[in-house]
Amino acid sequence: MYFLAHYYLRQSESSGFCFGNLLPDLVQGFTKVYNQKIVKSTASLSEEEIHFHDGIITHYADDRKFHLSDAFVKVSDMLTKGMVHAQLDRGRLRLSVIAHLLAEILFDRCLQECHPSLTQNFYNMLENTLSLSLKHYFEKHQIASLYEVVCERRERMLQNRFLYQLNDSKVITDIISFLYAKITGINMTNSELFRIIEVINQYYKSVKEWKNLLDDL
């Protein structure tokens, strides 16, 4: 899942929980830190730190459920076939990876349309989290240097507020291009990006599975 989907699913929890819940998507490479330092943690935590920790743990559990759902698999497969039809080169690009990323982000787009106040609520949560006491959480897990990274990424999200722009297919494609390059080291060409925009515009409005994903959460 992407940012808004995680928040939508758990917004009734504390703000500390919600912030922990978005952390794995906020910080690149966080899963490695999670596996090495956090998942088997025996550190003694304050109440606020426990909420934050539980949010991180829940992120991965929710992702597993989401990615195994019939609707997500169907949408990802549909987007892959759409890109093949648009003549994107499977020998050069891993279309299944692109489809996975697209499905996640387009689901956030659907959430915005179904719940207009969700994005503002998400940013309100982000503005009111990251108290100094959470710095102790990172220190207790021997990842103190990561705290500054988290602060910087949070501030960047608050400044650009890009989630408001998910109704723009070009913005979504730019996000996909950035993420895909991070994952594979391959930069997409302008022609490839244009074809992905066409796939988004052609398939998004016609797919009932976006609503099915929403109902299943």
Give a quick precis of the structure.
This protein has 217 residues and is mostly helical.
Helices and strands, with pairings:
Blueprint: H1 3-10, H2 15-26, H3 30-38, H4 47-68, H5 70-85, H6 95-114, H7 118-127, H8 133-140, H9 144-160, H10 169-184, H11 190-203, H12 209-216
Helix pairs in contact: 1-2, 1-6, 2-4, 4-8, 5-6, 5-11, 5-12, 6-10, 6-12, 8-9, 10-11
Structure, described:
With about 220 residues, this protein is an all-alpha fold. About 75% of the residues lie in helices and about 0% in strands. It has 12 helices and no strands. Helix 5 runs antiparallel to helix 12. The radius of gyration is 18 Å and the shape is globular. The mean pLDDT is about 90.
* Total strand segments: 0
Strand content: under 5%
Mean pLDDT: 90
* Spatial extent as radius of gyration: 18 Å
Distance, first to last CA: 11 Å
- Put simply, the count of helices is 12
The percent range for helix content is: over 70%
Order of helices and strands: HHHHHHHHHHHH
Structural category is mainly alpha
Q: The biggest beta sheet, please?
A: none
Uncertain runs with pLDDT below 50, 5 residues or more?
none
Query: Can you tell me the overall shape?
Result: globular
Protein traits:
217 residues, mainly alpha, 12 helices, globular
